[in-house]
Amino acid sequence: MYENRPNTDMEKSAAPFFRITVPPTHFVPRKIQIFPQHHLKNTHKTHKIDIRIAHCDMGDETLCFIPATSHNRKGEWIMNFLVETSARHVHVTQEDLETLFGKGYELTKKKDLSQPGQFACNEKVTIVGPKKEMSASILGPVRPETQIELSLTDARSIGVTAPVRESGDIAGSGACKLVGPAGEVELKEGVIAAKRHIHATPEDAEKLGVKDKDVVSVKVDTDGRSLVFGDVIVRVSPKYALAMHIDTDESNAAGCAGTVYGEIVK
């Protein structure tokens, strides 16, 4: 059952929040993810809503998010997409995970993230730099290379130089030490400030008029701190879900709070 619930954070984009109620008598696998597009019939002349179920958990009800809305501007449909704030976090290899937490250790899921297959973990590590240290959560699953993503403010506060890079581009990046309950890992490289980016499926990229590796500008309308982010890299893959990711410095600069949408500007 779809239930329309007003949400003041989303009034500007005319994107109501929808609640999906799952009757307890229905069998639903405990953790399922559904990523095909689900369109809500909408005949409004100035706005369109693109509904997709992102997460579904066993229980009386679960919530879906709205990754995209569209509005008509002078006869042209402009697509808006969700802008998510990514706090500092760590990706680890299986080898480093076992050094930090013990032989044979496996990550435990805390919650799913918007990108298919990605999840926040219960595990945390301490990031140690020349000046000080700070705690950060691990994101799963494990990766081929250990990578630490910090805001530039975080990096400066612990005394580490973090170049602005795309995820996975860690050659010659910042060094630090990771400390876990079972051991430590000295990293000669791996600390970056993630380049702001948009995840998009090929279908979404076509709607947005972009292609993989395009660099675009994105306007974010917020209360009193609206701005345009330049140098936004577009990443296209059928494995993605539509969303833009910015770090905490960028989010604070734009005054992002609650549900925030952006649009590509020429």
Your description of this structure?
There is one protein chain. The protein starts with a strand and ends with a strand. Strand 8 (68-73) and strand 9 (76-86) form a beta hairpin. It has helices at residues 94-101, 152-158, 202-208, 248-253; strands at residues 2-5, 17-21, 31-32, 38-39, 47-51, 56-57, 61-63, 68-73, 76-86, 89-91, 109-112, 119-128, 133-140, 147-149, 164-165, 174-179, 184-194, 197-200, 215-220, 227-236, 243-247, 261-265. With 266 residues, it is mainly beta. The strands form four sheets. It has a six-stranded mixed beta barrel. Strands 10-13-12-16-17-14 form a six-stranded mixed β-barrel. Strands 1-2-7 form a three-stranded antiparallel β-sheet, with no helix packed on it. The protein folds into three domains: 2-73, no CATH class; 86-194, no CATH class; 196-265, Barwin-like endoglucanases (Beta Barrel). Helices cover 11% and strands 44% of the residues. The radius of gyration is 20 Å and the shape is globular.
